[in-house]
Design goal:
This protein has 170 residues and is of the alpha+beta class. It has a single domain, classed as Glutaredoxin, CATH 3.40.30.10. Helix content is 36%, strand content 22%. The protein is built from five helices and six strands, in the order H-E-E-H-H-E-H-E-E-E-H. It has helices spanning 2-19, 51-61, 66-73, 90-105, 160-168; strands at residues 23-27, 32-39, 79-85, 113-117, 139-144, 147-153.
Length: 170
C-alpha cells in the first residue's frame, strides 16, 4: 500500500504537467496555430504553422564556434535555463533552433530547461511568464542555484554561444 501511495505521489504531478504541455491557441493576427504555455521541442511538430520547418532548417545549418563551445561546456554545471519564446516570432524561429543546437552539442540536460511559449501580448496563462518581466522574445534566462545570472533578449550581441559563455562566467 505504501508503494502505491509513493508512486501516486510522484507520478500525479508529472502526469498533470505533461497534460498541460504544448497547448495550442490561435494567433489572432495571422489566424495560425501557436503554442502557448509550457512547451518542449516536440510541440514544434504539432502546430499548423511554419515554425517546425523553420526550426529544422536553422538547426541543420547552424555551426557552433568550437573554441567557445569548449569554454561553455565547463560552465554549465548547476545551470538552469528558462526560455520564453513564441512560435509566431521570427527571432524565435532563428535563435531557438540555434540554442537547441548549442545545448544538444553540449549534452545539456533538457530537464533543466523550462520553455514557455507566449502570445503576442507576451502572456501565457498558467505559467510563471508574468513574473519574468519579458518584453521581447525570445528571452533566454540563465540561473545558478535559483539566482538569475543574466539574459539574452531577442538577439544576442555576438554569437549565441559566446553570449551564454559571458553570462555563465559571472
Amino acid at each position: 500500500m505504501k508503494i502505491i501511495f509513493f508512486l501516486t505521489a510522484i507520478m500525479l504531478p508529472a502526469i498533470a504537467f505533461s497534460q498541460n504541455l504544448n497547448q495550442k491557441a490561435t494567433d489572432q493576427k495571422k489566424n495560425n496555430e501557436m503554442l502557448i504555455g509550457y512547451c518542449n521541442r516536440d510541440g514544434f511538430k504539432t502546430i499548423d504553422s511554419n515554425f517546425d520547418s523553420a526550426y529544422l532548417a536553422e538547426y541543420k545549418v547552424y555551426r557552433t564556434d568550437l573554441a567557445t563551445m569548449k569554454l561553455l561546456s565547463q560552465k554549465l554545471k548547476g545551470v538552469n535555463v528558462t526560455l520564453v519564446m513564441a512560435t509566431w516570432c521570427g527571432d524565435s524561429k532563428e535563435w531557438v533552433p540555434r540554442f537547441y543546437k548549442i545545448m544538444d552539442e553540449l549534452n545539456f540536460n533538457h530537464k533543466k530547461l523550462t520553455v514557455i511559449c507566449v502570445d503576442r501580448e507576451k502572456k501565457a496563462p498558467g505559467t510563471i511568464a508574468a513574473g519574468l518581466n519579458v518584453d521581447k522574445v525570445p528571452t533566454f534566462i540563465f540561473y545558478r542555484k535559483k539566482t538569475e545570472l543574466g539574459r539574452i533578449i531577442e538577439v544576442p550581441s555576438d554569437l549565441l554561444e559566446k553570449d551564454i559563455t559571458v553570462i555563465l562566467s559571472k
